[in-house]
Amino acid sequence: MRSLGGVRSTNHYKVMGTVSPASRFAGAVDMNSDGNPDLIWSNDSTGDHSVWFMNGSTNTSSAALLNLGPSWMLATLADFNGDAKPDMVWEQSGSGLRAITFMNGAAYAGQNTVFAAVDTSWHIAAAADIGADGNNDLIWQNSIDGSRVITFMTGAVWSGQYAAFAKVQPSENIVSAAPIQWVPHTVCVAIRGTPSRSKYDPGRAVCIAP
Q1: Does a structural domain hold residue 174?
Q2: Is the pTM of this model over 0.70?
């Protein structure tokens, strides 16, 4: 048994399946409303996206998700229309356009929202209800200077309000955001450094309250 910065590892693991080496892990959200987080995979070179439906750590089946073409990268997933089903948030490379496609499980629900273009140095890193109003908000990071902002949303529409929080190094990336169950209205944002950091360094987290 090994200790990783205070976290003890039993070296136990389970192989759940395989994906193409070109695919990246894009998120864990409940796509079929069974109470289990499902695993999302993205191939940015082809624009292919897929979901593994999970029962705990068991991969029970899979399905292809929406493909908008390789110019559109899947940025994050969260519910933006209040139907308790994760929607897909996209960035188009080179244009600064962002979009949300509304989903009915793994199927496209036939509706979408496209945002006005922003500077291409800004990227959507995660989504979470930071405003504690029942709406998922978007967390952005600037790849040039490490600036980070939250745009507060009302459904899929920007409310007109935003907040900046502490910069990180441009080499550090926001990888996820999740509420802290035992601290009301608080979301922790996980930050990971470059591969040059120690492989036993899990990164760090910044907690945000409205």
Answers
A1: yes
A2: yes
